[in-house]
């Protein structure tokens, strides 16, 4: 079973945690002037300060021993080699091949996949150039002004997040829209903003069977055909990104307008494939290449850096340390960058879909907590909302602060203030404020003693809250590629330690099936004027109540 809990390294960490728990972060800094130099790493243009964590040299060496015991480097090697690291679906997980920069082959099942990858990239590049340069025109000869990506989950969150993150590098006139939700309001409100003559739809679905995407795509096609366009014009306005050629053809998209990818690319890891088409349209083929190069640089680091200097593995070990030894159950992502406003949502899928698992690779149950809840919003906005809970709440919430030294939009002193806020928060979360210093400042402000007594505990901050700070020169395509790959590999290293499969998603598959059955039951009851009785009483009651409200049945 190879559970981490069976290793001597785990036992060594358990006893160590009890000793380490009560050491204050501020005291760790007082005791070691070299702490910042000691607990920092560099990789692919990113700098990580992880000194504000509840760790000592000894903690780190015990964590490294755990990574060794769980064979993290060997598991990385197996993934990059194209082994079947996703056994429940019998697949490799080779998203790294999509950004592979060297002329060397990458094999899956004995076959080099690089020629196919390069061929799709070339087709994507010439398609994007023709749209961006106005050579690809709509059915009335006008250039394309709006792109609507229709997809959900991995076929939506990545391109949406990345096009937002790289907005400063975007084409000057192409507007991008993303429709994911089956809630009709999403497609209807988007269609209100675009013109059928100048809109290009990308229907993005790995399987091309996802009900939300097909429903939205059908609505878009109907809307398009209700304009003055006819069936032959669909080819100029609809392209598909999928692994399923037959279903694309069945939907009515010419497979000449299809960009393929492969089953060894997981949905949430597919931004690097043709699923990244909206991103390439947005930042151009050159920008997309830079993005891939950033990812490849992080791949190189993940494969070659020893555990102690391996940024994704160190971040993973810190998550394991907090989740399994110090009682944390969530992890905050705080990008101090407005353009990264969808990054926490993207990471929610990447981490929670990957590591929200409760059995080991061999199917035996895990006995410890696995992937933590990931959440967040950009700073400084979060400071005016949930940061109160970080500072004075009762939960231990490790956090990653993400910051660029340079702004993409230099303007007055905005960026200096943004940086100051980010650093002030990590400092305050660590230092807190003692009751003595609260009393002192209240006295200095002339507050009377009775009021000081009433207020002092409320205004005391325990501090001791751990944070990582990730720093980059500027958030450009290369930096974003490296950042995403960093978190992909962090998630992989966590899974390697817990010995779980990060590449399947049976919970998502279940959701896809359940709704279909319930939909059929609901429709049958409406058609036949009957009550649904085949579910539990709560679900039956809700269905019947909603049917009555919608169709005025008894
Ligand atoms: C990702 C998941 C899931 C998937 C969506 C969309 O890893 O498998 O989020 O991306 O369910 O699936 P399709 O791309 O097949 O429509």
Describe this structure in words.
With 554 residues, the protein is α/β, with parallel strands linked by helices. The protein is 49% helix and 10% strand. The protein has a six-stranded mixed sheet with strand order 1-2-13-12-10-11, with helices on both faces. A five-stranded parallel sheet has the order 6-5-7-8-9, sandwiched between helices. Strands 3-4 form a two-stranded antiparallel sheet. α15 (343-355) links the parallel β10 and β11 (373-375). The longest helix is centred in the middle third of the chain and has 28 residues, at 277-304. Glucose-6-phosphate is lined by residues 152-155, 205-207, 210, 213, 266-268, 353, 505, 508.
List the helices and strands and how they pair.
Layout: H1 8-20, H2 25-31, H3 35-38, E1 40-43, E2 46-49, H4 57-69, H5 72-81, H6 95-98, E3 107-108, E4 111-112, H7 114-132, E5 146-150, H8 157-165, E6 175-179, H9 184-191, E7 199-204, H10 211-225, H11 234-237, E8 238-242, H12 245-251, E9 258-260, H13 277-304, H14 311-325, E10 330-335, H15 343-355, E11 373-375, H16 387-392, E12 399-404, H17 414-431, H18 435-444, H19 449-455, E13 467-472, H20 477-498, H21 506-528, H22 537-551
Helix pairs in contact: 1-4, 4-14, 7-13, 8-13, 8-15, 13-20, 14-20, 15-20
Bound molecules: glucose-6-phosphate.
